[in-house]
Amino acid sequence: MQNLWKENLRKIEPYVPGEQSTEKDIVKINANENPYPPSPRVIEAINKFNCDSLRFYPNANATKLKKALADYYGVEADNVFVGNGSDDVLAICFQAFFNSNKPIAYPDITYSFYPVWCRLFGIDYKTYPLGDDFRINPNDYKEENGGVVIPNPNAPTSLGEGLDFVEKIMQENQDCVVIIDEAYVDFGGESSVCLTKKYPNLAVVGTFSKSRSLAGLRLGFAIASKELIAILEAVKNSYNSYTVDSLAIEAGTAAVEDDEYFRLTCKKVIETRERITASLRELGFEVLDSKTNFIMATHSDYSMKKMFEFLKSRKIYIRYFNLPRIDNYVRISIGTDDEMNRFLIGVKEFLLSENNK
Ligand code: PMP
Q: Which atom of ligand 1 sits closest to the CA of residue 90?
């Protein structure tokens, strides 16, 4: 038996998401989820949802959700694209916009899904190392590119750049599409949505998974010129007309409409982040100035891999990346104040146990 059919199977290395656990009484601060529940208006929309309507296909254009997002961002509904999480939206953007024979450009270190999509879709890419301060140097992107994708704030560094930075990238990249991935922008970053009116080749991608506490619902969006949105629609409608389901349209719309709750929960996350940053610094950690719902921390006297394992044994889940330059860092998502207090106790126990060795 030669099993020749196996030769035609796709060999690909997938993206590895943060561990998910159903264990009880854990502190799960490893996947940048929001520690607060979705808006009460989302819960109400789900409770009121007419389950009989599930017999029908959803509105393929998700008109209601697009209208809510358009009103929120001060654009027209045809400047909005929605998808099944921002991973879905980004994957469609890669297919729709990155068809040049020149490589696309993005930073190294960054969101580790980008190379996975490049490999899946056969897109050539080059990466530019971050500076010693882990910042992106906009001058790196002056070369001719087949496209650019940058998360702002960047992940997992947590550092955010201002509009002047994005303007610089746009000035230097007028012949390709630039994607700014704003998954974490609502926690103190500066959004580039306003620049989409000035630059028809700029697409800003956002998500409901972080600041709107809806990671499980799978909703993401892009804001861009009508021309770019039309291309995204055409690509999406070439493989699946119904990425966003009826329930997600209702719940997502309710989430966007509850601005007060959104602001309140973002503020709470930011306050907790600042408190934990200060506490870790007092313990001798170096913590990057986060503009996200997570922090990147290191300690010159201790192994962060060991700390990650120590905390895990105490049911406190953070994230460790065994990657060049960040292999002595940990990424800690911001939980509730109680969860973060438990985390701090765990960290102090770890430092003590190491000191006693
Ligand atoms: N972009 C970045 C930078 C992220 O960290 C994530 C979360 N893993 C995403 C996009 C995708 O998030 P989602 O698909 O849940 O919207």
A: 10
Q: Whose CA is nearest to atom 16 of ligand 1?
A: 86
| 1 bridge partner residues | none
Joined tokens for residue 21: 């656990």
Ligand 1 centroid to Cα of residue 294, in Å, is 13
| Residue ranges of domains in the chain, CATH in brackets | 15-37+260-355 (3.90.1150.10), 40-257 (3.40.640.10)
What is the residue type of 153?
A: P
pTM over 0.90, yes/no: yes
pLDDT confidence of residue 24:
85
pLDDT digits (tens, 9 = 90+) for 73-129: 999 999 999 999 999 999 999 999 999 999 999 999 999 999 999 999 999 999 999
